[in-house]
UniProtKB/TrEMBL annotation:
Phylogenetic classification of the source organism: Bacteria, Pseudomonadati, Pseudomonadota, Alphaproteobacteria, Kordiimonadales
Assigned EC number: 3.5.2.3
GO molecular function, one term: dihydroorotase activity
GO process terms (BP): purine nucleobase catabolic process; pyrimidine nucleotide biosynthetic process
Domain Amidohydrolase: 331-411
Domain Dihydroorotase catalytic: 69-227
Superkingdom assignment: Bacteria
Enzyme class label: hydrolase
Matching CDD domains: DHOase_IIa
Name of protein: Dihydroorotase
Gene name tied to this protein: pyrC
A single GO cellular-component term on record: cytoplasm
Species of provenance: Temperatibacter marinus
């Protein structure tokens, strides 16, 4: 077995609340030792981390493309793939096919979600039990929430039998209609059809009531508004098994990002008001938000070169996940330990994965990064299959140095 020791690191493990200077020894694919003073065999390769943070590998709960080179560059060791692929992941055979293909080709761990309804048509629920056995970790119709309350109730009852996680996109469809921007003054001035924040709030409130009634687990895929955050917070206070995610681009941009109609700033849900942005930061800091996701959705450049109303929504998010997520740490409202939990132990717990932690005998899925290293996001230097980011030329802090999966270094800056 190959022995590798990462020394002079800042070991951060949110699950055990560890934040100490120390070293970590890998034996083959597993963690063999970690701590402030460990015995390192003479035969081990020594890698000096020079004070950088060594944490569990990041787990990304919301990605629409595997794009593993970009994922590795972003410190992501596990990609949770959304089910609306070229062939929908709506049955056990599709789950097995995705997992087998990823094992052959990808350097990162790839685990799919299954669809909540067949063909994502919102009419017939899928075989959750069979897909769970095949390796699916949650169930969602992606950006199409299950609208019919009776069908969602049946889905949640079925899911509760397995304690499976149902993931809903929080956008009441009749209120969304053909909207493409936040329903406010900016959209009105730009002549863009709006989506009101209440569309998010109403969807969350209804879904939370059904989760409460069925005693099932509900995860809100992305919250984008103050009203959405408050709906989640209130449901949690009632004891509902509800959790939620945010994507870091919503921590940085508001509706003013649409000035000039830049299609790289067209996202779903849309960027909202400055008040909403600040509410998201507060919800992340106070624990209302459970996980941070990249929402990685690379788009062919031709789909972004269209007029704003016709252009596709989506951002390339893997490689900017860390620096953009560090905002509350840099502003002093969160500790680095608590922030990293949203990328590691948080998603692992929700998805019942035996990962997202540093412990002896665990698979060595690790991310090593410098939270203070300055760099400039440059679209033409990203490794993603498409580089649709609204953050081109933005100076940021926080850079991934190495990404390790099962003891193998798959990325090095």
């Amino acid at each position: 077995m190959t022995l590798t020791a990462y020394v002079n690191a800042r070991l951060i493990d949110p699950k055990s609340k560890m934040d100490i200077p120390g070293s970590l020894l890998i034996n083959g694919s597993l963690i063999a030792a970690l701590g402030e003073n460990i015995d390192i065999p003479e035969s081990a390769e020594i890698i000096d981390c020079k004070g950088k943070v060594l944490s569990p590998g990041f787990i990304d709960m919301r990605a629409f493309s595997v794009d593993w080179e970009a994922a590795a560059a972003g410190g992501i060791t596990t990609v949770i793939l959304q089910p609306d692929q070229t062939t929908l992941i709506d049955n056990d055979a599709a789950v097995e096919r995705i997992r087998a293909r990823a094992k052959e080709r990808a350097t990162v761990n790839v685990i799919p979600m299954g669809t909540a309804t067949k063909a994502m048509d919102g009419q017939e629920i899928t075989e959750i039990g069979q897909m769970l056995e095949s390796g699916a970790v949650a169930f969602t119709d992606c950006r199409k929430p299950v609208e019919d309350a009776q069908i969602l109730k049946r889905l949640m009852e079925y899911a509760s039998y397995y304690d499976a996680l149902i993931v809903q996109f929080a956008e009441e469809q009749s209120l969304k209609a053909d909207g493409i921007a936040h329903d406010g003054g900016i959209a009105s001035r730009l002549g863009l059809t709006g989506i009101p924040s209440i569309a998010e709030q109403i969807q969350i409130e209804r879904d939370a009531r059904l989760a409460e009634h069925t005693n099932s687990r509900l995860h809100v895929a992305l919250v984008s508004s103050r009203e959405g955050v408050e709906a989640v917070r209130e449901a949690k206070a009632r004891g509902v098994k509800i959790t939620c995610s945010i994507a870091p681009h919503y921590l940085h941009l508001n509706e003013h990002a649409l000035e000039g109609y830049p299609t790289f700033a067209k996202v779903s849900p849309p960027f909202r008001t400055e008040e909403d942005r600040l509410a998201l930061l507060a919800a992340l800091a106070d624990g209302t938000v459970d996980t941070i996701v990249s929402d990685h959705d690379p788009k062919n450049p031709d789909l972004k070169r269209l007029p704003f109303g016709q252009a596709a929504s989506g951002v390339s998010g893997y490689e900017t996940l860390l620096p953009l997520s560090l905002k509350p740490v840099q502003e002093g409202t969160m500790s680095l330990l608590d922030l990293i939990a949203k990328l590691t132990s948080g998603p692992a717990s929700l998805l019942k994965l035996d990962s997202g932690h540093l412990s002896i005998g665990a698979q060595a899925d690790l991310t090593i990064f410098d939270p203070e290293q300055p760099w400039i996001i440059k679209r033409n230097q990203l490794k993603a299959s498409a580089t649709n980011t609204p953050f081109d030329t933005l100076p940021v802090n926080g850079k991934v140095w190495k990404t390790i999966v099962a003891g193998h270094e798959i990325y090095s800056a």
